[in-house]
Specification:
mainly alpha
Length: about 230
């Protein structure tokens, strides 16, 4: 019985991603973000439970990647797609085609997950932007700022270009730190504590959009940290 618990949690992640996608296409971006976050919670616990129960399996690994691509790849891409459909002027060049560029990110998310499964360097940190972080950035940006973004004429093109940039970051060779602690002291964990201490003020000040700012801050700190460690 216990061998089915991690896969059940993974399926809950996948279902959360499907629900998030539904709300994304419906234009209810806050609920879409909520179910992406719920999916991230299930994603966190499925791996932890599998390790605690010693029931990790190849099928669980494959199922986890499939669920992650739905929740952290397709769902945020659907949010961008729907927002672009609503925001690009019908008279703009290629207006009917440009929104479909959002799904490039879903493809790169799948590629990122496939690389992660085969890359043995990512036990203590990440190489490239993790898909949950990317999904939280886009979910929070669209949910928290979609009305403000619609007041900017060129915003759809910036959003599309940013989605291509984040697609690159997903498969890049940029080292990014993980919030894993071997010991709780300050020394050796400076970058992690700086990041964690800055999260709460950003959430208080910027609310939902603060999640997107936190992810940007995470990427910036990771780049600085990787440069300093060379």
């Amino acid at each position: 019985m216990k061998k089915h618990i991690p896969n059940t949690l993974t399926c809950c992640n996948l279902i959360s991603g499907c629900i998030a996608t539904f709300y994304a296409f419906s234009g209810d971006y806050r609920l879409a973000l909520l179910f992406i976050i719920i999916g991230a919670v299930f994603d966190f616990f499925d791996g932890m439970v599998a390790r605690l129960l010693h029931v990790s399996s190849p099928i669980g690994k494959e199922l986890d990647s499939l669920a992650d691509d739905i929740t952290f790849g397709f769902a945020p891409s659907a949010m961008i797609f729907n927002w672009l459909c609503q925001s690009i002027m019908p008279s703009a060049p290629l207006a009917t085609l440009l929104p479909f560029g959002a799904f490039v990110m879903a493809a790169f998310s799948a590629l990122r997950l496939a690389k992660f499964n085969l890359d043995e360097r990512q036990s203590l940190g990440f190489i490239g932007l993790p898909t949950p972080a990317n999904a939280l950035f886009w979910g929070a940006l669209i949910a928290g700022s979609h009305e403000w973004l619609q007041t900017i004429d060129y915003a759809p093109y910036v959003i599309l270009l940013l989605s291509f940039l984040s697609s690159y970051l997903l498969v890049s060779e940029i080292p990014m730190f993980a919030l894993k602690f071997k010991q709780w002291g300050w020394k050796g964990n400076e970058i992690k504590y700086i990041f964690l201490l800055s999260c709460l003020p950003l959430l208080i000040i910027f609310r939902v959009s603060g999640i997107a700012i936190i992810i940007l801050w995470y990427v910036l700190l990771s780049v600085v940290n990787s440069r300093c460690c060379k």
